[in-house]
Amino acid sequence: MKRVAALAAALALIGVTAWLVWPSAPEVRGQDQTITVVDGPDDDQRVELDTTFFPPPDGGKAPAVLIAHGFGGTKQSVRQQAIDVARQGYAVLTWSARGFGRSTGEIALNSPDYEVKDVKQLIDWLAKRPEVRLDAAGDPRVGIAGGSYGGAIALMTAALDHRVDAIVPQITWSDLAAALFPNAATQTTSGAASAESTVTVDPATGAIGQDAEGGVFKRMWAGIFFGQGVSLDASSLLGRREAAAPLTPEQARCGRFLPTICDIYQQVATNGRATPEAVSLLRASSPITVANQIKAPTLLIQGQRDSLFPLSHADATARAIAAAGTPVSLAWFDGGHDGGDGEAEWVAEQSSAWFARYLKGDTSAPAVSAFTVTRDGGRDPGTRQRIRLHPEAGSYPGLTGTDTTTVRLSGPEQNIVNPPGGAPASISTVPGVGSLLGGGQSGGVSIDMPGQSAAFESAPLTAPLQLTGSSTVRIRVTGEGEVTLFAKLYDVSDGAQPPALPAGLVAPIRVTIPEDAASAEAAVTLPAVDYRFAAGHRLRLVVTTTDMGFATPATPAAYQVALASPELKVPTVRTLAAPPSGVAWWVWAMPLAAVVVAGVLLATGRTGTRKRRAAVPSRTDGGQAGTDPTGADAGLAGDADVPLEISGLTKAYRNGELAVDGLSFRVERGQVLGLLGPNGAGKTTTMRMMMGLIRPDDGEIRIFGERVTPGAPVLSRLGSFVEGPGFLPHLSGRDNIELYWAATGRPAADAHFDEALEIAGLGKALERAVRTYSQGMRQRLAIAQAMLGLPDLLVLDEPTNGLDPPQIREMREVLKRYASDGRTVIVSSHMLAEVEQTCSHVVVMQRGKLVSAGPVSRLLTSSAATTNGHGPRLEDVFLDLIGDKP
Amino acid sequence: MTVATGYAAHRTLPLRVEIVRQFKRRRTMVMFGLLLALPWILVIAFQFGPQRNGQGQSLRISDLATESGLNFAAFSLSVSASFLLMVAVALFCGDTVASEANWSSLRYLLAAPVPRDRLLRQKLIVSLGYSAAAVICLPLMALLAGTLAFGWNDIQVPGTGETIPAMDVLPRFGIVIGYALVSQLVVAGLAFLISTMTDSPLGAVGGAVGLWIVCTILQAVEALGVLREFLPTFWNNAWLDALAPELDWSGMAKGASISITYAALLVAVAFRRFRRKDVVS
Asked: What confidence tens digit (pLDDT) does each residue in A480-510 have?
């Protein structure tokens, strides 16, 4: 026990020390300052930007990272991120963009004339800081990271200021006009008239409609984006409002937007239609227009759950940047404006790896693949938590994938109506709610209103289908004028689950049916998703007339929708492969190691026994053959005719007190030996050692010349009854006896059951469960058990306890008769009169030592103790011997 | 002649004898009775519960239990694997040596003599056999009861609601039971080790259950991170993967690895200690 305690204490000490000594992360201190910049188309507007600079904690010159906040946020929103980045050895600058937080100025939507100029001047400022590493005079080594609004400024700045060395824009737009006025349809033919189609989107390039003027207004998102009270940054909603003064009418109308932007928004929101001015204004703030000028390596992280800036935006940006020969990587993570997990840790790792490579020039930094997709890896088998896999591809295949699987849809032409006023509307994603509620795993609630939707379904899939990119399908719409529709691709299981709309995304379509034709055909690019359709599931294309998130016409109308072609082209990416996640090495190594250790434990256990045996000194008495009992052949030495020979036997209690102390005596055949001694003399301990239950500390016991060890075969010649009976209480007496004999493995014929049971004398009680027995009955049964097989040496501990006088008398006869057949009996007892009458020899012990040994008669005659004229009684001799005589 | 006629160490304490010795115990009977009755109790509970109507059902394993006999068996296993079966295994393995010590019959067996390693080996085999019987009999009875009560339908997978044909899932059920057996090896090893160290049968069972509870609590401490994977209780529910539409071995492989590792060490320590131990009971 002491060793265990010492070990535990040592481990605890090591743990505490490690805890204390473990290097803690360096402390990062932010310096708040206001930086004044000058911007505007004519460079005449002074704006004060509220910034915080985090110098690299280790001192020296380090690359700088600008971290931009999202729409509605401030520099405080990215403070923790800034500290984390600074800790990795960067100088970090955060700022509240113009029009946000304490910065002055008005929101210009990341315009090259305003926000981009601001950031250029922040880079100028960084170039003057002593903590920032410079590539050239006035050119700091700098990267920009940011999400949403902050991602767009990263792209815009990198395009317009080539001092930027690396950027990590997240969940941001490529074309703001296309984000707010999307159109996923490419009208190809127009019915019978076959008028020249107005190809506006190359289907291969994805869903971004360049024809934003004809796009469907993303009403709810736009409202949130431009709205005064609602912010895209959930944390700013929860925090204190900074504006204390009541709003002026102008503030209430436009908030902190530039008045020109405000006016244009009011116009388009009222009409639900894009104007050319609106499109040109939004385009001016769109990275897609300048992305081909970006020279800084770009890691685009786009959310799979984003109905505001869907994956197609990152796709368009990535292809424009790649076309200019700039390194670009793309990650589709589980997040976005509609929620999802956010994967903060993973995104931070990727971003950190990107900056390490392109800002620090650290070639040992983990590589970021050209294309990474976050996929659901099921549940962790241990925690039952969702796990995410990150399969990677060496090149980005675009939204059309590396391969195309064609799924055949079927369904007749269906009549659908646009309800007057556009209500009730179908629901796919409720903008803003997903992120505010933390985002769910499912795409949320998807409801299609009856009468407003046409559905086309595939047969159950025979194999799982992993869609990665934008599926395409061709539909024919019959009706009049301009038709606004919404296409979505459902995953339908035949089970109890409702149909699932991957990521809650819809593709808005606007088709114009020519005056001279009844119908028009359009190629529809469905939303880009990464989604696995399980085998047995169906794909269902649903075309609805309404969607809650979009502006739809108020006039009622009726259309017919049919499939122009039954083929749904589903892109798949063959090259996406999860990093090999084979069985962890310990899964097979640990059991093997454990088995080896177990083997060692068992083997060394044996060695310990031998050592102990070897330590036993040579016997001191006897003079039998083999006086050198050390070694493996010790068991062979000894006289096979001597039933019991004890030499130098010593056993200490745990506390060190000796229970048996150098005991030596010898018992010959035919003797009935009485083992006498007061309580605590070591009688029982000696008997236990005879049975091999206890190991002697020193000396040895030999039975018929064989040394007694635990389970030594010679014990089969020993019958024993020590310290009370031991039976299975739920079994009958007979079962106990029979099963005991069966446990010895010896033939039933050798048992002599009848003779033994006769001694027990239990009669019919033999069939009762032992737990119903009296003490005496158990005692007799136990003696019978000891006599099973008529052992050559019988050891009985207090055999007459609990017996009545006739039984005692009978027992005495039994024992005498037993010994007279050449067998040997050893009896320990307190009842000295009994011993005197039964035994031929006695051994007297006290405090573990032999006091006297010899025939009873000799003991009596040699004693000086005589009383009252009688011959000496054993009792007197005994008391005399143990020195307890009054 | 130093050995009694007909004695041979390798014939001592035959398995048959040990099985009989343990089988007639009230404890064994009660435990098996409970395990066999539990599915029927659950069936009755489901029959008496308020009837859910229509399609608006959720996809939790408990709500799917009445869908088919297979679903019911999966449910029964899920509610009993974490504790009831563990207690059963702890009982059979923890009681086996300690109760002999308690009855004082251990010393007579050892003096018979049954060699100590052999005594432990035979007892371990028999108690593992009883444990296995306990782990197997519950889902089998649940399958019978569920099939009689709810019919023989295809299994509906919890969580996704997909159906797997009944005949395809039967081998999976074998995997579930097999994994449940392997994952209980730790408990068996632990209970067995304590059983060789104490004279109190309930102490051995309680000790195993107690350590199990401590592990379960530690498992809830997320701060332990990846270390929790090496807690013996961590992979207890990994058998759920065998009922997923796509069989995933990784969790069960890890669980089996941990379980076998601990069990091997615990049993080895048990043998080593018992071999050198002074039997004073």
From this structure: 888 999 999 999 887 667 888 888 889 999 9
The DSSP annotation for A447-481 comes to: B--TTSEEEEEEPPPSS-EEEEE--EEEEEEESSS
* Domains within chain A, CATH numbers bracketed: 24-170 (3.40.50.1820), 403-572 (2.60.120.260), 719-791 (no CATH)
Residue type present at position A303: G
CB proximity A742 to B under 8 Å:
yes
Gap from A58 CA to chain B (nearest CA, Å):
29
Interfacial A residues in 672-691 facing B (CB < 8 Å): 688, 691
Contact call for residues A253 and A148 (beta carbons, < 8 A): no
- Asked, as a colleague might, if the bond just before B113 is cis with ω within 30 of 0, I would say yes
Largest Cα span, chain A = 151
**Chain B residues closer than 8 Å to A716 by CB:** 3-4, 7, 112-113
| Cα nearest neighbour of A694 on chain B | B278
Q: What is the least distance, in Å, from the CA of B136 to any CA of chain A? A: 22
B253–A590 C-beta distance less than 8 A: no
Name the burial class of residue A769, with classes exposed (0-12), middle (13-18) and buried (19+) by CB atoms within 10 angstroms of its CB: middle
The encoded tokens of residue A227 equal 């709205």
Q: How far does the CA of residue A341 sit from the closest CA of chain B (Å)?
A: 18
Interface of A with B in 288-327 (CB under 8 A): none
Alpha-carbon A240 to chain mean position: 37
Q: In angstroms, how far is the first alpha carbon of chain B from the final one?
A: 31
Question: How far apart are the C-alpha atoms of A394 and A524, rounded to whole Å?
Answer: 29
User: In angstroms, rounded to a whole number, what is the distance separating the alpha carbons of residues A653 and A651?
Assistant: 7
Which of B27, B108, B164 should we substitute to test contact with A (largest number of A Cβ atoms within 10 Å)? Answer: B108
Distance CA(B78)–CA(B137), nearest Å, equals 14
Q: Residue A849: which residues within 8 A CB-CB, separation 6 or more?
A: A661, A662, A663
Count CB-CB contacts under 10 A for residue A618. 12
CB contact under 8 A, A728 and B103: yes
Question: Which residue ranges make up each domain of chain B?
Answer: 12-38+58-276
Q: List CB contacts (< 8 A) between B7 and chain A.
A: 713, 716, 744-746
Q: Which of A225, A224, A218 is nearest to A552 (CA)?
A: A218
Share of chain A above pLDDT 70, in %: 85
How much is the ipTM here?
A: 0.91
Cβ B184 vs Cβ B85: under 8 Å: yes
From chain B, pick out residues whose CB is under 8 angstroms from the CB of A711.
9, 110, 113-118
Give me the DSSP letters along A795-807: EEESTTTT--HHH
Q: What is the dihedral of CA B240, B241, B244, B247, to 10 degrees?
A: -150
Rounded to 10 degrees, what is the CA torsion of A793, A797, A801, A802?
Answer: -70
Whether residue B260 and residue A587 make contact (CB cut-off 8 A), yes or no, is no
pLDDT at A602 over 60: yes
Q: Do you find a cis peptide bond into A424, omega within 30 degrees of 0? A: yes
Tokens representing A184 are 């996923």
Q: Indicate yes or no: CB of B109 within 8 angstroms of CB of A591.
A: no
For A592, how many CA atoms within 13 A lie in the half-sphere containing its CB? 5
Token pair 């003779």 is at which residue? Answer: A755
CA–CA distance, B83 with B85 (Å, rounded to integer): 6
Q: How many residues are present in chain B?
A: 281
Query: Which of chain A's residues have a Cβ under 8 Å away from the Cβ of B10?
Result: 745
Q: What is the pLDDT of residues B140-185, one digit of tens each?
A: 999 999 999 888 887 777 766 667 788 888 888 889 889 999 999 9
| Cα(A413)–Cα(A76) distance, integer angstroms | 55
* CA angle A528–A529–A535, rounded 5-degree value: 130
- Find the Cα–Cα–Cα–Cα dihedral A799, A803, A806, A808, rounded to 10°: 20
CA–CA distance, B250 with A883 (Å, rounded to integer)? 75
